[in-house]
Amino acid sequence: MGKIAIIGGSGFYGLADFGGKKVVRTSFGQPSDFLSTAKIGDTEAIFLPRHGQGHLIPPHEINYRANIWALKSQGVDRILSVTACGSLKEHLRPLDFVIVDQFIDLAVNRKNTFFDTGCVAHVSMANPVCPALRKQLISLSRRFPAVTIHTTGTYLNINGPHFSSRAESAMYQQFADVIGMTNATEAKLAREAGICYATLACVTDYDSWHPEFEHVTVEMILDNLRKNVEHAQKLVQAFLTEPYTKPDCNCGESLKYALITDPKKRRILTKMKKCFNHIRGA
Fold first, then answer.
1. Residue 257 within a domain
2. What's the structural domain count of the chain?
3. What residues act catalytically?
4. Is 32 inside a domain boundary?
5. Would you place residue 194 in the very low, low, confident or very high pLDDT band (cuts 50, 70, 90)?
6. pTM over 0.90, yes/no
7. Stretch 175-193: mean pLDDT
């Protein structure tokens, strides 16, 4: 049946009923924290805080490969990522949610692929979010009329940990809807791992372009995130209690036509072969 994982972001460090604790070590180092586990109805679920408990790891130093690898190694086939973000559009107000459908990645100097020298893969990121998970989230959003949930949006991923200058923020407005520091990296690795991935973005601020909100502060973000977290947890809990249906998507076949290195010369970690059972001829 597979398992579902929730990756929590700033201010979202846990879920009720996730009492199990599992420490996982990977070929790519340590994940951000131990994996919290739970059985919710017929669903086996895992929670992982990307910044660690207590928010110890900045976005540019998160071991994204270890996080996604750890989840894959535990049989996860679906990931719902909950993330704080800034709004680049007037109509996307603080405390709104956005079900992201596209990414623009401006993050640099990150390990955002499992495939290094020895085995080259070029996966398609034309549609970076799993359509089946997005459809499920959109359907669930109708149960929460008190919350404004936007069903499309482009997420711009900057490197961090700094917030944008006003000039940068004004430029970013031209080609994205929300701005964050983490999710495009996760989406790329999840796609390589053959895991369905979707983002629920919680708007905390107007970045720095809005004349009434020029100075983004951590206090402002966390205050709005605390207000959003109750709604986010309810939506996530509803998501987890949905009956399992096999995702109607091609996420699990992401590497079918992506490996370009001569099969006779490919060098892939033994653990990677076992973990990535969607790799053909590796």
1. yes
2. 1
3. 205, 207
4. yes
5. very high
6. yes
7. 97
CATH number, domain with residue 28: 3.40.50.1580
pLDDT tens, position by position, 31-86: 999 999 999 888 899 999 999 998 999 999 999 999 999 999 999 999 999 999 99
pLDDT above 90 as % of the chain: 65
Report the greatest alpha carbon distance in the chain: 60
Decide if 280 is inside a domain. Answer: no
Rounded to an integer, what distance in angstroms lies between the CA atom of residue 254 and that of residue 248?
14
Q: Is 55 domain-assigned? A: yes
The boundaries of the domain holding residue 216 are 3-275
